[in-house]
Design brief:
alpha/beta, seven-stranded mixed beta sheet, 8 helices
Length: about 250
């Protein structure tokens, strides 16, 4: 993309986010708290519009969002994962504290009550299970967690089973998901990448093809076993998507 077009896209990212946040604020000033269903619909539209602005096109989509509030678990590649998932399911996210400071993702996530976790704080981590259970069982929200705890291309790092333990303890169904992109490395936010230069390079790059699959919800039998087996299934499916879905 030409630098001028990339600059326009960069500002459109912020403009789009600001516009949807302003709509929610105006609604609250006139009518009080926005009903969750309306807010979630608003943020889903924000996510779809954001994908258009940053030139991400969903070329493979399979499955539908669970009609029952659940805990979504799957692989994690980029900051783009959040609007991609939100475009398919109006989920609340559990993410590291730093996500709240991301310039366009952070504002939207905070608006949708994302659970931000300080990994260096034992107290912060201990509150997650309670917050997740309350969001799902008391407020009727679907919650999304990345069990790897970090972004990666090949998903080789074993998944943490904390999310599965929460699902088992509170009898919450989980819905697995798989997400992917092509080209992959320019979209992936990994290693020593820094947000601002990565975002600028991303916007200047070629259009991105995205794939997303939402699998059937299921109950957790054994947290450690289920985390390990589902991790292997997601890795296998990622390889299949990369082989067959972008031709």
């Amino acid at each position: 993309m030409h630098p001028l077009a990339a600059t326009q896209s960069f500002f459109d990212v912020f403009g789009s986010t600001a516009r949807y946040i302003a709509i929610s604020h105006e609604f609250e000033e006139k009518y009080g708290a926005m009903p969750r269903r309306i807010l979630q619909g608003l943020m889903t539209r924000w996510a779809k519009n954001l994908l258009r602005v940053i030139n991400v096109h969903v070329v493979h989509k399979q499955g539908t969002a669970s009609q029952q509030p659940c805990l979504m678990v799957g692989n994690h590649i980029s900051y783009v994962d959040i609007p991609l998932l939100m475009s398919a399911s109006p989920a609340v996210f559990v993410a590291k504290k730093e996500v709240g400071s991301y310039p366009f993702i952070g504002m939207g996530c905070k608006r949708l009550e994302t659970v931000l976790v300080d990994r260096n704080s034992n107290r912060s981590r201990s509150l997650v299970a309670k917050q997740v259970a309350e969001a799902i069982q008391m407020r009727g929200q679907t919650v999304a967690i990345f069990p790897s705890g970090t972004t990666t291309i090949d998903e080789q790092k074993p998944w943490r089973f904390g999310a599965f333990s929460i699902a088992k303890k509170f009898d919450i169904p989980i819905q697995p998901f798989v997400i992917d992109y092509h080209p992959l490395r320019s979209t992936a936010f990994i290693g020593d990448d820094y947000l601002a230069p990565h975002l600028w390079a991303f916007l200047r790059g070629q259009p991105v093809k995205a794939a997303i699959e939402l699998w059937e919800p299921r109950q957790v039998r054994d947290p450690q076993t289920d985390a390990r087996e589902l991790h292997e299934a997601v890795k296998k499916r990622l390889n299949e998507i990369r082989t067959h879905c972008y031709n």
